[in-house]
Design brief:
Elements lengths: L3 E3 L5 E3 L21 E4 L23 H7 L3 H9 L6 H6 L4 E8 L6 E5 L1 E5 H14 L5 E9 L3 H15 L15 H7 L3 E5 L26 H14 L8 E3 L6 H5 L6 H17 L11 E4 L4 H16 L19
Parallel strand pairs: 3-4, 3-10, 4-7, 7-8, 9-10
Antiparallel strand pairs: 1-2, 4-5, 5-6
Helix pairs in contact: 4-5, 9-10
């Protein structure tokens, strides 16, 4: 799919290369101070109702649900675990540059898989898809956030790390403590194209991995739209850390009780549209920059012709003057997902 937005000269640009087309005045802005579209549970598009139940144990996988509903349970898990409709390539083409990944092993297999309630695609296929996009889009930077690991042994972690280095090689940007130098210009000059955030203690032993505390990821954990709006607004008003990335999660999270009350619905039809409408309105008066938004994620990034990724990218044009020299606000600590 082809998504477009207007640049600073009023010209329509394709979202698949929006970083390349940013105004030159933003090429020296640290990456954590740019507004970057992301997707929640990015690879859940690859699950299906015939997939094996995964070990990530969301509420949908609760043994009570399986016991009560039997063979129908997988279908329900699928309907409420699928958070994206587009493939990784399609998400990249509509501007997504941050991917939320959950990884698990499978018994009797050496392969690793993406999961969310059910097993999805092979990790190797996901990584190759992203690598292929980077080959043809030489000025786009991608953030991979390995959020959760399930049934992963040390051998599995080493296998995944080897796969990452084999796939991306010199494109991987090593961890740097001085976030101020992490600009588009600095990354382009070194041909660094991808940042790997790895939420496991093993990250501290590998200089090409970025540790968890450099990308706070507060989670609203609510099914109530008003509660989500309050959570987002409070965090935005309180500010974010000046020397780190920051993820804003615009998602509603169903409870088991909520799902039982909406068995005929899906995450997309019941909550996806509502949460995306809320985020669309909430973004209208927001800015990027040190005192503004960085990574913003949502479910179903394709809704309304990728409206939310477009709005997020537009924040960079809207607030070009919002530079890192602005005085930072106090950071409000919140729980991670």
């Amino acid at each position: 799919m082809e998504c477009k937005t207007k640049d600073d000269k009023g010209l329509y640009r394709s979202l698949d290369c929006w970083m390349e087309h940013l105004p030159e005045s933003l090429h020296g802005t640290p990456l954590p101070y740019l507004a970057i579209p992301g997707s929640h549970d990015s690879c859940s598009y690859s699950i299906n109702s015939n997939s094996e139940i995964a070990p990530d144990e969301p509420l949908l996988q609760n043994s009570i649900l399986i016991h009560l509903l039997g063979c129908v349970s997988k279908r329900i898990i699928y309907k409420w675990s699928k958070t994206q409709s587009l493939s990784c390539t399609q998400q990249l083409e509509c501007g997504v540059r941050y991917f939320d990944l959950r990884i698990a092993s499978m018994s009797d297999s050496k392969d690793l898989y993406v999961v969310h309630g059910l097993y999805g695609a092979l990790v190797v296929d996901i990584l190759r898809e992203i690598q292929k996009f980077l080959q043809s889009h030489t000025k786009e930077i991608v953030l991979l956030d390995f959020q959760h690991f399930y049934n992963m042994s040390q051998e599995d972690h080493h296998s995944l790390l080897n796969l990452l280095t084999e796939t991306f090689g010199s494109l991987v940007c090593p961890f740097v403590t001085d976030i101020e130098k992490l600009t588009l210009s600095w990354l382009w000059q070194r041909n660094f194209r991808i940042l790997l955030f790895y939420r496991n203690p093993i990250a501290k032993y590998h200089p090409f991995l970025w540790p968890t505390d450099y990308i706070p990821n507060p989670w609203g954990n609510t099914v109530n739209p008003k509660a989500l709006l309050s959570f987002l607004s409070k965090n935005y008003q309180n500010g974010r850390p000046p020397d780190k990335f920051y993820v804003t999660q615009g998602v509603l999270t169903p409870t088991l009780t909520f799902i039982f009350c909406h068995l005929l619905g899906t995450l997309k039809s019941v909550l996806g549209l509502e949460s995306n409408n809320l985020i669309t309105e909430w973004l209208k008066d927001k800015v990027s920059g040190l005192n503004g938004l960085n990574v913003v994620i949502c479910d179903f990034v394709d809704m309304e012709e990728c409206r939310i990724p477009q709005l997020i990218i537009d924040l960079n044009y809207k607030q070009i003057q919002n530079t890192p020299e602005n005085k930072p606000k106090t950071f409000h600590t919140a729980e991670k997902v």
